[in-house]
Design goal:
The complex is a heterodimer of chains A (116) and B (444). Chain A is of the alpha+beta class and 116 residues long. Chain A has two helices and six strands. The chains are: A alpha+beta (116), B mainly alpha (444). The A-B interface holds A 14-21, 34, 36, 38, 40-45, 48-63, 90 and B 193-198, 265, 268-269, 271, 273, 275-276, 279, 312, 315, 319, 328, 414, 417, 419-426, 432-444.
Chain lengths: 116, 444
């Protein structure tokens, strides 16, 4: 079933969440789900220390965003996140887009695009 | 109206000894914060419970049994009589004021141990040991020294207890940590150490400064008599005459100790390590206890810097030999205490340096350390034999808060997510951001 619903995953810097939220509401996609996550990518390992003993931190704090997109072009949402989360340094994050088979609005029982 | 000088002396002296006692008591708040900050969030309530009950059970033990043991040891080692050792139990109000000062000191020695065996020692076994410190290990140390026993007879000098209190507590902690064994994951099978960061640097630093505050009572309070009455019946200043010297030495040595540790940590990693700095501050305070009343402030600075530097080096050594001293209590109290005792003949302004005094101080260090080590080995070894030394591996993994107390100290730790997008540390006990450096390289 083609629902024309996309799910946009984005893994971004925690301190960019405010900018990304702002950008998403500006393109007309204010709904989102946010999770604290840690992960490893291209960002270099960080050295931390405890009583002078150094240890490496290679899991970095990130924010995972999930946006369901149907009414506006998915590319607009992707670009909004991409621009707002950008610093140009390793560790800015990744964005993935996947198609969604179906959706249900719990309150009304609506299905498909109407549910979003 | 005429005033009786004896009444004035008694009243003022009582006020001072009790004020000092209360300051020393407050050090327990410092130990509680210092130690709980250095453990993971799953072991905080356990660490605090150990600190609470150390006072509760240990102070009673010291009062009912320990103080008498001290008198008996002093008598036995000098050939004196034993009668009246427990007379204080039926004593006077004044006597109890001074006894409480001693009790507060005894529990400083006992509290030190909980930091060394944190995160894996069983509560029950630990408390048995705390009672042993209050009733036996510490009272014997004071009986040999301040009580007038064998070491006092030799001329051993240890004003406020670098050796008697801190080194004894530090050695007990070291040996207890050795007997209990390291926390799981602290060392790899090849012996290389892993870092297990504690959960709160702010607690650790707050505890350090509370301890430093109480230390003024510990050191200046040891100049316990403000007034005395001369044979002519006049008031005279007593040991309190050196109060200003003790206070300035106490204040300056913490600076020297913190600078020594901070400088060495900076030299090694190009970063100033805050916890090491805090540990260095305390090591400085430990070292000055022995001679705060007789040293010039300039020599105190030198000893303080050495005390701070040795914290870094001794802690390294412990890691090399595979002893997991969670709160670095041996570098801070044990070796720094020995340093203070041995420094006495070098910094004593009341008499010239003498090798014989150094020898006496060395005998004091050896006797007190051997006593503390042997009794700890015996008592904690016994606790280990009956399975009271440490919790099971599963309980250690779950955290002692859950397994020994049924509480979660921070149920909502790390759950917040503000609109500004400030993410906090994940609220798990497994340090997801600190996987100990498995050496994974950067990749895409």
């Amino acid at each position: 079933m083609m629902t024309e619903i996309d799910l946009v995953f984005a893994y971004i810097r925690p301190d960019k969440l405010g900018d990304v939220k702002q950008a998403l509401s500006e393109v007309g996609a204010p709904s989102l789900t946010v999770t604290n996550v840690s992960g490893r990518g291209s960002q270099p390992t960080k050295t931390s220390q405890w009583r002078g003993d150094e240890y490496s931190v290679d899991l970095h704090q990130k924010i995972k965003l999930e946006c369901i997109v149907s009414e506006i072009p998915t590319d607009d949402v992707v670009e909004a996140i991409e621009n707002a989360a950008h610093t140009g340094n390793p560790g800015d994050g990744k964005i993935f887009v996947v198609g969604v088979d179906n959706a249900v609005q719990v309150r009304t029982g609506k299905r498909g695009r109407e549910a979003v | 109206m005429t005033a009786d000088p004896a009444v004035i002396a008694e009243g003022v002296n009582l006020v001072w000894v009790l004020v000092a006692t209360f300051l020393v008591f407050f050090m327990h708040a410092g130990f509680g914060m210092l130690e709980s900050g250095q453990v993971r969030s799953k072991n905080v309530a356990n660490q605090l419970s150990k600190n609470l009950l150390t006072w509760g059970i240990g102070a009673i033990g010291y009062f009912v049994i320990g103080a008498g043991v001290s008198t008996i040891v002093a008598a036995v080692t000098t050939g004196g009589g034993l009668e009246g050792a427990y007379g204080y139990l039926f004593g006077s109000s004044n006597e109890w004021a001074y006894l409480l000062f001693g009790a507060a000191f005894s529990m400083v020695a006992a509290s030190i141990v909980s930091g060394a065996v944190a995160e894996r020692a069983q509560l029950g076994g630990y408390l048995v040991f705390a009672v042993a410190v209050g009733t036996l290990i510490y009272p014997v140390a004071t009986g040999l020294t301040w009580g007038g026993g064998f070491l006092a007879g030799l001329g051993y000098i240890d004003f406020a207890g670098s050796g008697v209190v801190h080194m004894v507590g530090g050695v007990c902690g070291l040996v207890a940590a050795y007997v209990v064994g390291p926390r799981s994951g602290r060392f790899d099978t090849d012996g290389s150490p892993n870092v297990i960061p504690g959960h709160s640097l702010p607690y650790a630093v707050l505890g350090t400064l509370i301890l430093a505050f109480g230390w003024f009572g510990f050191n200046v309070g040891t100049a316990v008599n403000v007034f005395s009455v001369t044979e002519a019946g006049e008031l005279a200043i007593a040991s309190y005459a050196s109060a200003g010297r003790i206070a300035i030495n106490t204040a300056l040595v913490m600076g020297a100790g913190s600078i020594g540790a901070a400088a060495l940590s900076y030299a090694r990693t190009q970063k100033v390590d805050p916890l090491m700095t805090a540990n260095g501050l305390l090591a400085g305070l430990v070292s000055v206890c022995a001679f705060a009343n007789i040293a010039h402030w300039s020599t105190v600075l030198v000893v303080g810097v050495i005390a701070g530097v040795q914290v870094v080096l001794v802690f390294d050594l412990l890691e090399k030999v595979g002893i997991d001293d969670v709160c670095a209590v041996f570098p801070v109290h044990g070796s720094a205490g020995a340093l203070g005792v041995l420094a006495v003949p070098f910094v004593d302004t009341t008499s010239a340096f003498s090798v014989s005094q150094l020898g006496v101080q060395l005998v004091g260090v050896v006797v007190l350390a051997a006593w503390a080590a042997a009794t700890t080995l015996l008592i904690y070894g016994g606790l280990k034999a009956v399975g009271w030394a440490r919790v099971s591996e599963q309980e250690e993994t779950d955290g002692l808060d859950a397994s020994e107390h049924g509480v979660e100290t921070y149920p909502e730790f790390g759950q917040q997510l503000s609109g500004g997008g400030t993410a906090s540390v994940p609220g798990t006990d497994t340090p997801t951001a600190t996987d100990g450096g498995s050496g994974v390289s950067d990749d895409d």
